[in-house]
Amino acid sequence: MKNIPFMSFRYYAYGVSLLLVLLSLLSLFYRGLNLGLDFTGGSVIEVKFEKPVKVGEVRKLLEDAGYSHFQVQDTAQGTVIVKLRLGDPTQPALESLKNLSSYELIRSESIGGIITSELRQKAIWAMLIAIGGILLYLGYRFEPLWALGAVLALAHDVLIVVGAYSISQREVNLDVVAALLIVAGYSVSDTVVVFDRIRENLRIRKGTPFRDLIDLSINQTLARTLMTSLTTFVVSLMLFVFGGPALSNIMFAFVVGVVVGTLSSIFVASALVYDIKHRLKAQPVGV
């Protein structure tokens, strides 16, 4: 088994992580997020076509009509739902849809600011509760300091993924928020595997410097981490490339998140625990 000195590379990893975080923060500050209808409000149109119509045809028709921000989905009842951004007129969209087939208008309504404000608050609370739950679990299973290192790495992962959405100006909706939570859980699961091995080695290799134990533990779990991440990344990439606009937007979080989460699990999370513990001198560590 190769013994790669990961801890020797931690300052390079910190530098790359800091650069990505700064780019994300700058993009969020200057460009912001391209928020979807779930957060901005808008109009909802639901129609039932007389002839079979594909969602892709509806999407292309609306693009040709000049609409740039919208969502199209079909339902189990055979209807098609079109969501338009706040301020976009609905009548031209209804007129354009007639070019595909005659249809029956099932409903046409607006999504108000009260609903979107409530959705934003729920999304924020979902993220905070998830991070808080992870912090409590890791603090109970390991040590509070280890939990802090894991949550800092987790916040680093999520912030970079959100920054990637800002830089690319991909739409952020509730589906993307759900994807971010899944990515956060995936990232933490990788970190927990490494932490668990470190704890095990602390018991069976007493007297070994903490830094060497971290290197040993990461090397022992490296094959498992890379194989799991690679298979997940390949599936996510295929869905991102061939999944269509709606699915592609969600899978973008997985493509970026798996890469960033894997790197943070290997280079950042354990290194943060070591450096924090070393600075606070919570317990003797190897130099």
Question: Could you please describe the fold and organization of this structure?
Answer:
The chain has helices at residues 10-30, 37-40, 55-64, 91-97, 113-141, 144-168, 174-204, 210-242, 244-280, and strands spanning 34-35, 42-49, 70-74, 80-85, 103-111, 171-172. The chain is an alpha+beta fold. The chain folds into two domains: 6-36 and 115-280, Multidrug efflux transporter AcrB transmembrane fold (Up-down Bundle); 42-111, 2-Layer Sandwich (Alpha-Beta Plaits). The strands form two sheets. It has a four-stranded antiparallel beta sheet with strand order 3-4-2-5. A two-stranded parallel ribbon has the order 1-6. β3 and β4 form a beta hairpin. The longest helix is centred in the last third of the chain and has 37 residues, at 244-280. The protein is elongated, with a radius of gyration of 23 Å.
Q: What would you say about this model in short?
A:
The protein has 287 residues and is of the alpha+beta class. The chain has helices at residues 10-30, 37-40, 55-64, 91-97, 113-141, 144-168, 174-204, 210-242, 244-280; strands at 34-35, 42-49, 70-74, 80-85, 103-111, 171-172.
Q: What proportion of the residues form beta strands (DSSP E)? A: 5-15%
Shape: elongated
Highest CATH level, the class of the largest domain: Mainly Alpha
> What is the typical, i.e. mean, pLDDT?
84
User: Architecture of the largest domain in CATH?
Assistant: Up-down Bundle
The arrangement of helices and strands along the chain is HEHEHEEHEHHEHHH
- How far apart are the termini? 24 Å
Major β-sheet annotation: 4 strands, antiparallel
What is the strand tally?
A: 6
Evaluate the radius of gyration. 23 Å
Structural class: alpha+beta
Number of domains: 2
Assigned CATH superfamily of the largest domain: Multidrug efflux transporter AcrB transmembrane domain
How much helix, percentage-wise, in residues?
A: 55-70%
- Looking at the structure, the CATH topology of the largest domain is Multidrug efflux transporter AcrB transmembrane fold
Low-confidence stretches: none
DSSP summary: helix tally: 9
Strand order of the largest sheet: 3-4-2-5
